[in-house]
Amino acid sequence: MKNIRTAIIGAGYRGRYLITLLQKINLFDIIAVSDISPNLSEIISQLFAGEKIPKIYNSGTDDYRRMLNENTIDLVIIASPWHLHKEQTIEALKSGCHVAIEVKGALDIDEYPDIIHESRQNKKQVFPLENTLFRNDILAINNMIHAGIFGRLVFLQGGYRHDLTHILIDQTGNFGVQNGSESEWRSKYYKTENGDLYPTHGLAPLCMFLGINHTDYIKSITSFSTKPGLGLHACMAKRNGMKYTDIQQHTFRMGDVVTSILQTDSGAQINLLHDTTLPRPRSLNYEVQGTNGIWNAEKNAIYIDGLSPFEEWEPEDKYIEQYKHRFWQQWESEALRYDGHHQGMDYIMLRVLGEALQGRENYPATLEDMATWAAVSPYSKISIQKGTSIPFPHF
Amino acid sequence: MKNIRTAIIGAGYRGRYLITLLQKINLFDIIAVSDISPNLSEIISQLFAGEKIPKIYNSGTDDYRRMLNENTIDLVIIASPWHLHKEQTIEALKSGCHVAIEVKGALDIDEYPDIIHESRQNKKQVFPLENTLFRNDILAINNMIHAGIFGRLVFLQGGYRHDLTHILIDQTGNFGVQNGSESEWRSKYYKTENGDLYPTHGLAPLCMFLGINHTDYIKSITSFSTKPGLGLHACMAKRNGMKYTDIQQHTFRMGDVVTSILQTDSGAQINLLHDTTLPRPRSLNYEVQGTNGIWNAEKNAIYIDGLSPFEEWEPEDKYIEQYKHRFWQQWESEALRYDGHHQGMDYIMLRVLGEALQGRENYPATLEDMATWAAVSPYSKISIQKGTSIPFPHF
């Protein structure tokens, strides 16, 4: 079977990491890369030293369109800043390509519905690059759920708890430094939005566990925010020598912690957190609780009624090993060899993407799933603004 | 100084445990005990073997009134079933006694306001026996908070996550067994209520940390419930040989997991869980997150910006030791010797109660605090029923 002719849009930190993994999977040929960086040529030459160098497109933000026109492409992978995803995805679909897009929250309620429309119109697929779905523990827990080990699922927790102040604020206390990096485009949302900006890592596995969009549906969202700006102001003050007067000119809309309660048709509930401006170790806060047991990822522990010692957590390891997913049974050693930075999940994700495009596997999430996860962003903002529950959209 | 003449109402499991601790503290003289049990005489004789036997009152549910009339009592301790607390507390206050009451949720919105009225009317105090406030870790964390180590508090979590199915359902799957035990009176609430039945253990320390009723106030509550009865039905089926038809006659109103979001005037937020009918190890789910650090009790771990290694949890122990509260500095060894079952917190609580009554310490919670914690029960029910946020009462 012929390799997948692959083009990349966005060769920043994330795009380059994906390229290094794609090079290790003999299903993909990277034929072109687009990015506005003036250094793109050197970047790509270094990445492809000793290999066939892909064509590069870096003459401005529209040069990716020329790339789409000039080449025969099977798959476009998009890892650009958030506000460019929609246009680039739609252009790629119109050019007859499948698309794999990096995950993020929806910037408005129409973003993913419009992409769904184009995908159906052009009969091309869009694959969400949600790497958490490919974690060894997540896939094993999913197997356990389908084997009935946890009973019926009742209550799930997840979140994005990751202190981003090292991206948002520089070491002398300046907010949103204008250096062309992620700091520049990501920070502005903290001044203009209050909601869950980045829901997918915390939510996507929980939706897979619950069968959301298959056997159950999210029916409502209710979101809450702590007082805006407390963490950012405190961080700026710490880094600029406690000159509080200077920093009060910065007003923020984003609360440090946003809680979203998602209720499903079947009566299950997801509590989701967005927590990115307070100092803390990282966590995706996963917990899965059913009528027969519970998994808590923070504790790396499982409790199963009748199997575990009464009221005692067990280490998750033996269960994760016992219920290991076939993806990990097949590809674990190469995943860990090439993708130590993300514990193999990015490698497994791209491997499954390639297998799916060649018809040997089902990719475990659809564009409609992506639309569901991402909808938490705009609908959480509406819920916080209105102070009420909001009906959740179906896609 | 003369010892505190103490009378007990309720000599069940909890009341007897309190008696054994009071006997170890040379500030209290237990002069009378009231309970409806026909075996009260033997129970008390055993508990007080070799000591002065208190008078006993067990001629029916009103016999405690005779006890209040016939004796000169400084302090009445109430550890009876929930529905008796209000009447007994008010009678004790009217008799001129101080009262210490076991904690629980309010059975209706008037319960504690009425008690507050009587307490003020009679100029007698009511002390909530909330033992979590006296835990070594809780008191040390409180010291750290007041020393500014966590910065300004932003987001707190707590809960009562304790599988009570061994109380609510017997080993052959019968619900609410009629044997005069806790099963009988506690189980009925699961058929008639949907809300956080038992909020105080999860909430009281968080209110102390935030200065609720002193420098901040809870302004609203919004509560959510998973589908009622899933855990109870599954448990009954497991224990009765999976005869699902028999158990469907039992309808429950209580959701397995009730989430309450409490927002404060200052913009802080508490996420509180009630989770008592799914199999799991116990947890009070404490987490305290501020602008400078976070404590997670489930992980027994702390992270402080600038002190902890970047993004790495530290074991809490050294902090708990460094910020040990004076209660624990003074009484730790006797607390652990006499109260191993509750890691010393019940002993410390009763010791501080005695010291407070003799004017040497301030008890760290008031009747108004108890009213605040307990109000979560009726107001969570109203919020779930109405599907909206509800303004939270001040006392």
Automatic annotation (TrEMBL), chains A, B:
Record-linked Pfam families: GFO_IDH_MocA, Glyco_hydro_109_C
Cofactor(s), names only, from the UniProt record: NAD(+)
GO MF terms held by the record: hydrolase activity, acting on glycosyl bonds; nucleotide binding
Keyword NAD: yes
Taxonomic superkingdom: Bacteria
N-terminal signal peptide: none
Keyword match NAD: yes
Keyword list, A-Z: Glycosidase, Hydrolase, NAD
Occurrences of domain Glycosyl hydrolase 109 C-terminal (ranges): 139-314
InterPro entries for the chain: Gfo/Idh/MocA-like_OxRdtase_N (IPR000683), Gfo/Idh/MocA_oxidrdct_glycsds (IPR050463), Glyco_hydro_109_C (IPR049303), NAD(P)-bd_dom_sf (IPR036291)
Residue ranges of every copy of the Gfo/Idh/MocA-like oxidoreductase N-terminal domain listed in the record: 4-127
Gene3D superfamilies: Dihydrodipicolinate Reductase, domain 2, NAD(P)-binding Rossmann-like Domain
Protein family: Belongs to the Gfo/Idh/MocA family. Glycosyl hydrolase 109 subfamily.
Protein name: Uncharacterized protein
